Amino acid sequence: MIATLANPYRFMAVSRWLAPLCGLAAVVLIAWGLTLGLAVPPDYQQGETVKIMFVHVPAAWTAMFAYTGLGAASFSSLVFRHAVADAAARAAAPLGALFTLAALITGSLWGKPMWGAWWVWGDSRLVSVLVLFLLFVGYMTLRASIEDEAKGARAADILALVGLINLPVIKFSVDWWNTLHQGESIFRTGGPLIAPVYLNPLLLMGAGYSFAFLALWLTRTRAEIRLRRASVLAMRGVA
Amino acid sequence: MLALLMRREISIAWGRGGGPLLAVAFLIAAASLVPLSLGPAPGPLSAAAIGVTWVALVLATLLSLDRLFQHDLEDGCLDLLALGAPPLEAVCAVKCVASWLVNGAPLAVAAPAAAIALGAAPSSAIQIAVAALTGGIAFAFVGGAGAAIALVSRRGGVLMAVIVLPLLIPPVIFGGALMATGSAGASQALALLLAYALASVALAPFAMAAACRNALG
Amino acid sequence: MLALLMRREISIAWGRGGGPLLAVAFLIAAASLVPLSLGPAPGPLSAAAIGVTWVALVLATLLSLDRLFQHDLEDGCLDLLALGAPPLEAVCAVKCVASWLVNGAPLAVAAPAAAIALGAAPSSAIQIAVAALTGGIAFAFVGGAGAAIALVSRRGGVLMAVIVLPLLIPPVIFGGALMATGSAGASQALALLLAYALASVALAPFAMAAACRNALG
Amino acid sequence: MITALEVNDLAVARGGRRLFEKLAFRLDAGRMLAIAGPNGSGKTSLLRAIAGLLRPAAGTIVFEGAEDSGHARRTACHLLGHQEGLKGSRTAAEELAFQARWCGASPAAAELAASRLGLSRLMGLEVHRLSAGQKRRLALARLIAAKRPLWLLDEPLAPLDIAGRDLAAELMSEHLAGGGLILAATHDLLPLPADRLEL
Amino acid sequence: MITALEVNDLAVARGGRRLFEKLAFRLDAGRMLAIAGPNGSGKTSLLRAIAGLLRPAAGTIVFEGAEDSGHARRTACHLLGHQEGLKGSRTAAEELAFQARWCGASPAAAELAASRLGLSRLMGLEVHRLSAGQKRRLALARLIAAKRPLWLLDEPLAPLDIAGRDLAAELMSEHLAGGGLILAATHDLLPLPADRLEL
Ligand code: HEM
Ligand SMILES: Nc1ncnc2c1ncn2[C@@H]1O[C@H](COP(=O)(O)OP(=O)(O)OP(=O)(O)O)[C@@H](O)[C@H]1O
Ligand SMILES: Nc1ncnc2c1ncn2[C@@H]1O[C@H](COP(=O)(O)OP(=O)(O)OP(=O)(O)O)[C@@H](O)[C@H]1O
Ligand SMILES: [Mg+2]
Ligand SMILES: [Mg+2]
Predict the structure, then answer these.
(1) Fewest C-beta atoms under 10 Å: which of A53, A187, D45, D187?
(2) In this complex, do C76 and D81 lie within 8 Å of one another by their Cβ atoms?
(3) ipTM exceeding 0.85, yes/no
């Protein structure tokens, strides 16, 4: 898989049809999930606000998924020096930032009614997600502020790998450290805790978000690669 | 061999005057908070002491970061260090420890004194010292990683802010909780702070070395 | 001409990253004090904010001092500056102002924000900003004088501590009093702080220029 | 009144030790003086004393008929030292513009000088990326961008390539032809006719 | 196994631009190679690539029969660059002791080297007080204090006086006689027989 995609030409060939396919899947799944999600009965303690969950939780999941992708791409570009991997890493960052921001915003929108506060500095999950967002931003700034492309790329890869530590922190923060935030209720040993009525739309939305991310990621990566080809040709033209 | 390097780093940093300057200034500034005299209750003042300590630690670390690798890169010293027998990872770790000894440790010693001067209970003073020492190590190593990564850009400073700060947020918060003396979560916060410090000490050197090699090339 | 120098100094200091780093770090660190949650009363927290601001200002100044002249002396830049048409006094003053703009000003802007976040009254926030700005100038110039004088010694840092700190005590005290919002002596403290700042701005440049010439020779 | 530099039994001390004493010479407009001597003999110190950066232990330095503490000389000379005083984090263009204008040149003159020294292609690079010789050329550009009568050059040819040395020689001879003065400390022979002073 | 350095169609890139390509040469024990070329042609970059500090864009560098990513070379070479990496605030003695021992020499060897280069009288001074040539001598002292087979010298003679150049030549020839290798980037002729490589 990686080996296949590492070759730019094969990557372009595959992604040409893979990207739109993911886009289509995303549209279908999200539409389905929304129709189910908007129909759910109000929660006995959360009331209507429970519906925020269907936008919030998937956003959070996808944000972490995006950083995982960034980390993987950075690793293979740093170690195996795959051109595609570097382009993919660069393409993943802004998308990840976007989804993280979505998780933050929907989360604090939810937090006002549930906890009576938009933001709680003491809460490990909230903070670790904020860190995730800042890591994406930092990565983009680093990529933007570099004069020497090769060097800058490697430095950014290192940063991305360093930031990987944050993922388990986000995931397990709720268990390690007493927080206001919801504990694990879905991906936990012993099966989900929440009723199927809520679970199904949530999972549908999760899948939809993920496919949406994949579609955008592939597209941006393609654009990035095209850009580099252009610049290479330009250099040849000069020489 | 690394001991040599350590001695050299310390003497240079000391000559630049992080340490002594810092600790003394910190004590004076903290003591100057007394005239604020927020009523007889010791609570506020010692709380202020806690906050002051923590912020001082963060700033001291951040402000000494650009000296960590930048100079050595510019004056060719990093070349020499890279050409020695010890691995660059060890070199970077030593540099971080040295900068911690000069910038972080004096503060960690001065902090409890200031806190007590401001009416904190001796028990809390110990807690403050522990937190400051542990946090200092974490800051030094995480900051070092950021500094090394930022070497490739001429706008190093701004970049460092963006890179280092997110990584510093967790320890700052653990420390804040830990320093809230008597708070229930203190012991837990200490555990987290220690874990974070250990993790950074274990992982940062590799990031630093990789970033330095990249900057040298 | 001096505007050129100002722009250059700022771009270099900014690249080294005092300013941005500092202001943001300060805000985060200060905000992380909230979890300390010293009871519902805003008093303690805003007090903490005040103390934090002041200490941050002092440290930021002290830690950026060694960069003020040392580098320029080592890389031969100070020679060039001394051979220009403007008098060295003006050059030194510009350098101090630049370092204040990069290190002091961002803090002075961030401070009130943090204070309000910690529950201080807006009125006090203004007072904090004023004190931070005025104090920052005083620190920059007095500190600059110390840095210049310390150029002759290789143990610059320690020397600076001995030279600068005594000079910094008064403004720290005035500022502390001033920042004690609502305290009776506030206006008087402000007057004193202003007087001190003016005096340092007026006198320090001559000391700095003399010290620099001495170090060049 | 003609430009001339006159030094009378000059002595310069470093770290309490006198490097040389009773040094005397006269340099007229359009002439060049080559200062030779072993490492540590005080060439750089002498140049700094004449530039007005280092107070002599004894003796007088008369420039343009007036003897002064050095202010007149400070603003009338270009000192090209072992270090160029360029900041690695700024671009060549920024640094040259600053240095030249600081010495009284116009921005246009700076650009002209850069192209004269074959740096135009590099002006966008940060200084720390420049090679040793390129840095030196950048420093030389300052000399021709801002007109100053007295050039004090410390090993002006050091890291320059063959072409660069010819170019430097050309610039120096032009400066002399224009009635300028040059003091050059060097260990190898200069490509121009010059009086010699052994320290 | 004999010490030898072999470079096969090497290419080095800086800032995305290739400085040279298809560079190939072989250097055997006891031989010296002089690298010449205009400013910015890539001499320093080549030396750094061979030292293992700079990853080549293409080609291989084989040292002592083994090709590696550079670790072996890093610990087997002395790199004398444009900058000496000496800290101005420390004394010459401290700096030499550190640099030499960092490269594997004993303290005694460091002192011996210092006296060999005529620095004994100056070892107590801080480095920033040393003259350019004295700094250079201090840097050279490291080379003879710690024995390493491969010397990579960037304009080794630059700020040295006549005596210093003779001394440097002497040290180099001794190193060669001992079976060492020398790559020297320089703009002027070396005082020793050497193969020439034009960049
Ligand atoms: C800015 C505030 C918030 C942030 C940054 C945030 C972040 C996250 C993240 C990262 C996850 C994914 C956890 C995982 O998959 O392991 C998550 C899940 C979740 N969040 Fe939030 N959240 C916030 C506020 C809230 C609020 C206010 C609520 C409701 C009271 C909430 C309820 C949930 C629930 C129910 C889950 C799913 C739990 C699970 O099964 O893992 N979140 N949140
Ligand atoms: N600040 C100082 N304190 C003490 N001694 C100094 C100081 N500066 C220079 N010296 C000494 O003065 C002597 C002359 O230094 P100077 O740089 O003038 O020599 P130079 O002729 O330029 O040598 P080079 O040819 O190596 O450049 C040297 O021996 C040096 O050690
Ligand atoms: N980090 C960098 N980024 C971009 N370009 C660089 C970088 N470092 C060096 N260069 C460029 O590479 C070229 C070669 O530099 P190098 O120092 O190897 O030349 P050199 O042969 O040593 O020149 P000199 O004789 O002046 O020492 C120069 O044109 C320089 O501008
Ligand atoms: Mg000299
Ligand atoms: Mg070179």
Answers:
(1) A187
(2) yes
(3) yes
Q: Separation of E42 CA from ligand 3 center, angstroms?
A: 6
Decide if E13 touches A, using CB distance below 8 A.
Answer: yes
- At E13, list the tokens: 């890139």
Distance from CA of A131 to the nearest CA of B (A): 5
What's the CA-to-centroid distance between A128 and ligand 3, angstroms? 43
Residues with Cβ within 8 Å of B189's Cβ and at least 6 positions away in sequence, in order, are B174, B175, B177, B178, B183
Rounded Cα–Cα distance for residues E97 and E133 (Å): 19
Kind plus residue range of the DSSP H or E element containing E17: strand E17-28
Measuring from atom 2 of ligand 1, which residue has the nearest CA?
A107
Judge whether E97 and B5 are in contact, CB under 8 Å: no
How many angstroms away from the CA of E137 is the closest CA of chain B? 16
Q: What is the pLDDT of residues C61-120, one digit of tens each?
A: 777 777 788 889 988 999 999 999 999 999 999 999 998 888 888 888 887 877 777 666
* Residue among D20, D35, D41, D155 to mutate when testing ligand 2 (max atoms within 8 A of CB): D41
Question: Could you give the CA distance from residue C88 to residue C80 in angstroms, rounded to a whole number?
Answer: 11
Q: How far apart, in Å, are the Cα atoms of C189 and each of C112, C122, C141, E174?
A: 18, 19, 19, 73
Q: Do C16 and B66 touch (CB under 8 A)?
A: yes
Looking at residue A172, its amino acid is: F
Per-residue pLDDT of chain C (217 residues; tens, 9 = 90+): 889 999 999 888 877 665 666 666 766 666 655 544 444 444 555 666 666 677 777 777 777 777 788 889 988 999 999 999 999 999 999 999 998 888 888 888 887 877 777 666 777 778 778 888 888 899 899 989 988 988 877 666 667 777 787 788 788 777 767 766 555 667 788 888 899 999 999 999 999 999 999 998 8
Q: How far is the CA of A32 from the centre of ligand 1 (A)?
A: 22
Instruction: Tell me whether residues B162 and A152 touch, CB distance under 8 A.
Output: no
- Residue A196 is encoded by which pair of tokens? 């199927």
Question: Which ligand has the shortest distance to the CA of D46?
Answer: 2
CA closest to A147 among chain E residues: E15
pLDDT tens-place string over residues E112-168: 999 999 999 999 999 999 999 999 999 999 999 999 999 999 999 888 999 999 999
Confirm if D182 and D33 have CB atoms less than 8 A apart: yes
Give the 3-state DSSP-derived string for chain D, with helices as H, strands as E and coil as C. CCCEEEEEEEEEEECCEEEEEEEEEEEECCCEEEEECCCCCCHHHHHHHHHCCCCCCEEEEEECCEECCCHHHHCCEEEECCCCCCCCCCEHHHHHHHHHHHCCCCHHHHHHHHHHCCCHHHCCCEHHHCCHHHHHHHHHHHHHHCCCCEEEEECCCCCCCHHHHHHHHHHHHHHHHCCCEEEEECCCCCCCCCEEEEC
- Tokens 């904010």, residue located: C49
User: Could you identify the atom of ligand 1 that is nearest to the CA of residue A114?
Assistant: 30
Phi/psi for B206 (5° steps) reads -65, -45
Task: Find, in chain B, the residue whose alpha carbon is nearest to that of D128.
Answer: B74
Chain E residues whose beta carbon lies within 8 Å of the beta carbon of residue B151: none
Identify which of A99, A105, A120, A181 to mutate to test ligand 1's pocket (most ligand atoms within 8 A of the CB): A181
Give the pTM: 0.90
Residues lower than pLDDT 70 in chain B: 16-22, 24, 27-52, 118-119, 154-156, 176-185
Chain C interface includes D178 (CB < 8 A) = no
Q: Please write the tens of the pLDDT for every residue from D106-137.
A: 999 999 999 999 999 999 998 999 999 999 99
> Is A235 an 8 Å CB contact of chain E?
yes
- Any chain D CB within 8 A of the CB of C10? no
Q: How many CB atoms lie within 10 A of CB A39?
A: 10
Q: What percent of chain A has pLDDT over 90?
A: 44
